[in-house]
């Protein structure tokens, strides 16, 4: 029983075969998926999906790419969505200095505002961090989330991971963990405490080996879990169970 803690199943790439993707997931014993919002429409879609399928949970929030378009109405609507019983996290939020689709100062401002909104809503945060390690750590240290959070698709070093863990965050691994020569992420996955990690796909992005070049889907989270099992000399079942229990703990849902 594996929980894909970060996916985007409302993406148009699933439009043609959505039910088939879900069937594949069930056959592979992927028992839960968290569908992640990245702007207001996707957050609304996430909540709608979560109500259509009992095994799907939702997160709501605004990705740093979309930070420049936020209005007061955006926050008001997201706070209303956050009251829904199937919403378990606020995200994905954070900083992205790789694409820089919104000015960095605005990204930082919107990130801080969303930490405060997550605190108000009583939700953990789901963090997107791309090439913004220093500024992001500074913000979460100065504006700590009251209900914890997770660094999704972790890409930093072990030295940074130790800081992240000391701040109480969880670390989530996705398809890049399986890529050849990804020594930095492999080191983190080999050392992270077993009670502080998740597995995810970030579907439809970042498919693991051997599916690179194809559309990712929740079924493939097994490859990420299998890589951790290999690194830690554990069974796939042990990794699946541990990551599942970790998610239950952070997101405060029933097993």
From TrEMBL:
A divalent metal cation 1 binds at residues 6, 8, 92, 202. Signal peptide: none annotated. InterPro entries: Metal_Hydrolase, TatD-like, TatD/YcfH-like. GO terms for molecular function: DNA nuclease activity; hydrolase activity, acting on ester bonds; metal ion binding. GO terms for cellular component: cytosol. SUPFAM superfamilies: Metallo-dependent hydrolases (SSF51556). Keywords: Hydrolase, Metal-binding. CDD domains: TatD_DNAse (cd01310). It comes from the Bacteria. Pfam families: TatD_DNase. A divalent metal cation 2 binds at residues 128, 152. NCBIfam families: YchF/TatD family DNA exonuclease. PANTHER family: D-AMINOACYL-TRNA DEACYLASE. This is Hydrolase TatD. It comes from Desulfitobacterium metallireducens DSM 15288.
């Amino acid at each position: 029983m594996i929980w894909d803690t970060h996916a985007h199943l409302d993406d148009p790439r699933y439009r043609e075969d959505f039910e088939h993707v879900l069937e594949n997931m069930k056959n592979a014993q992927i028992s839960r998926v968290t569908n992640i919002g990245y702007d207001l429409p996707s957050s609304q879609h996430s909540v709608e999906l979560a109500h259509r399928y009992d095994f799907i949970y939702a997160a709501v929030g605004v990705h740093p790419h979309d930070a420049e378009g936020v209005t007061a109405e955006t926050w008001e609507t997201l706070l209303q969505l956050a009251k829904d019983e199937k919403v378990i996290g606020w995200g994905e939020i954070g900083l992205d200095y790789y694409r820089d689709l919104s000015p960095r100062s605005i990204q930082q401002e919107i990130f801080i505002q969303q930490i405060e909104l997550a605190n108000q809503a009583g939700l953990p945060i789901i963090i997107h961090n791309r090439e913004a390690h220093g500024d992001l750590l500074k913000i979460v240290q100065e504006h700590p989330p009251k209900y914890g959070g997770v660094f999704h698709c972790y890409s930093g070093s072990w030295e940074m991971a130790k800081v992240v863990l000391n701040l109480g965050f969880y670390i989530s691994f996705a398809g890049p963990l399986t890529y050849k020569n990804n020594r930095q992420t492999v080191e983190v996955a080999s050392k992270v405490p077993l009670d502080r990690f998740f597995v995810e796909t970030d579907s439809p992005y970042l498919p693991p080996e051997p599916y690179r070049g194809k559309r990712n889907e929740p079924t493939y989270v097994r490859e990420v879990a299998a890589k951790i099992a290999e690194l830690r000399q554990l069974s796939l079942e042990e990794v699946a169970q541990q990551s599942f229990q970790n998610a239950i703990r952070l997101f405060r849902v029933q097993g």
